[in-house]
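so the lab meeting is tmrw and i was supposed to have these ready like two days ago... anyway. pasting both below. for each one the top line is the aa sequence and the line under it is the structure tokens. i havent really looked at them closely yet so no promises
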Amino acid sequence: MSTDWQQAREALGRRLKELRLSASGGRLTGTLLAQRLGWPHSKVYKLEGGRQTAVPEDLRAWAEAVGRPEVFGELEARLKGFESHIRSWRRQLREGHRPVQDTWNAAVDRARVIHAWEESVVPGMLQTADYARHIFLRYADLQGTKRDTEAAVRSRMERQNWLYQGGRRFHALVWEAALHARVCPPSVLAAQLDRLMGHVGMDTVDLGVIPLGAPLKIPAANGFWILDGRLVITEDWHAELWLDDDETVGSYRRVWETLRASAVHGADAQNVISHVRRGLHLR
């Protein structure tokens, strides 16, 4: 978790406590405020201590409970300020996967050079529609979110138009393990691997594959994307992180370059993909 983000969450918590102690009807204890809100009292103290992230509805309810509904705008702005960096899946996926994909499309459209590393799935920019469909379905099941699968797939496919525009360059690294992952039926995976082989040698795509047996200078950890050397997008199970400070971006670029030293390209990359494809034993 980013230190800056945690500090912002704690600052919001201090502001909430200040509002509770200066409530228009007189100072409120945490227990009394929790009773007004119908919350467990632990939620009040977690929010004030920066140990739980509020949602806008929490902030609106808090402002009204302390008799200061007019401060909701200020509280929401504070929340949006650090949520722009740590975007929880719980919030992002309320309306399904399509809005998340549209946000990605806007960010990618502004970029001219992208560096990506994926250790568990084929990069979204290189996915087939069928492969993407299964990815979205699995995450919808995991998160218990709205199934807007077809709309999400269409948005992801629209993003791939970026690959066919002049002056763009997509530098992708994929761990061979991602090519074996049965996140979809074998026939869908086979078509995906065929598609991936077709991207090798494309003038806007530099695809590197790290074979399972290749020596690694660092562990093959979570995937990430670097847009124009100014923004890193990565994710964990709880949230997607958008990181734009120079030191962090530079750190991720060093990770990418270190991983690239273990990758094969061109015909060698095609051979790795083809070997995985032949091992599917389709009936």
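ok protien two:
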Amino acid sequence: MIKSLRLSNFYSFAEDTQVDFSLGRKPTPSGFDIELADCRLNKVIAVVGANGSGKTQLIKPLAFLSWFVCDSFLQADPDRSIPYKPHLLHLEEDTRLELDFFLLGVEHRYQLVLNGGEVVSEALFARTSTQFSYLFRRERSGDGFSFKQKGFPFPKAQAQGLRANTSLLAAAHSYDIKEARPFIEYFHSISSNVKHDGRRHFQHDALFSSAESYEQCPQIKARMIELMRELDLGLADISIRQVKVATVDGEQSTAHLPFGLHRSGDSREFELSFFEESSGTQSAFVLLGWVLSALEHGGVAVIDEIDNDLHPHLMPRVLDLFRFEHSNPHQAQLIFTCHTPELLNLLQKHQVYLCEKQDQCSAAWRLDEVVGLRADDNLYAKYMAGALGGVPEL
């Protein structure tokens, strides 16, 4: 579970910015709360703002950290820079990312500092009392790195010579160091339509990849079919079959393709491939893959433009998947951006961030930071009236 994310000099966010999932004891329970021994966490956070305000950039660090921690050692080109961008007005300054999260009942902190497309420092901590103690620290020193560890047995010589475009956690996992495995599994449980280097804009190829993922996890596939029936999309059932497709070089390959079964009131039936279904049906099929994966594993779903191609009446049903224990037994979390301000009627002020760009720099704030905003205020009405910020100035 995520407690908080801090970032600075990352894409359009130049200044220190925090996305905080924690809340005090004061807010009235909403059903979207995780109760821990000494704190409460949000299950759901919405990010709202004008086009170009930085909404995607605010949630992108989670997708970036998932890729960097899990895959940068094996997937990254050894000679390429880390794929991220500092703010274009602060190219020479450090980029800082910090994530506080709970794993196996212990609060941890992961810190990463980047500059020039390379690692400046990387560290992992565990809370031992009121303070954090490091499990490892890796800091740039000359042509290599200095390295210290307590209970994280990565060989010092390898850590000092590790290349500057990869995570030590990713390397440790590749070397089969068992202490790295829980952290790899945690960061791998971040499920997102945002890539580490940008958003995954919907393309028809997503139908193939989503269908293949469903086939690999029958319990998620069964839940997806159940939900697709419930969403009033005209579907009686969904099947996934392997088909022959042409590759870009003209060769033949196999791929998984979903087909929707439609049934009339007199029990007559017909079938359509999902390429013939509506864009909303296609989007729901792909979206549920990310959402249900997080719910199945107790992870975090990071969804950009969650309302894309979906009717507003469908969104409460998606949020309710995270609200109730029977559909979210592992306390999965969801953070999403959207352009449907009516969703503000479903959430409380501590569950909503607004984004705004001022003087070419993005800023974000949680609505419970707004002075004078009451818990029983109509958030939708105030937002639409421009009283909270985060709206286009036309």
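from a quick look at the 2nd one: The chain has nine helices and 21 strands. The first helix runs from residue 55 to 75. will dig more after coffe
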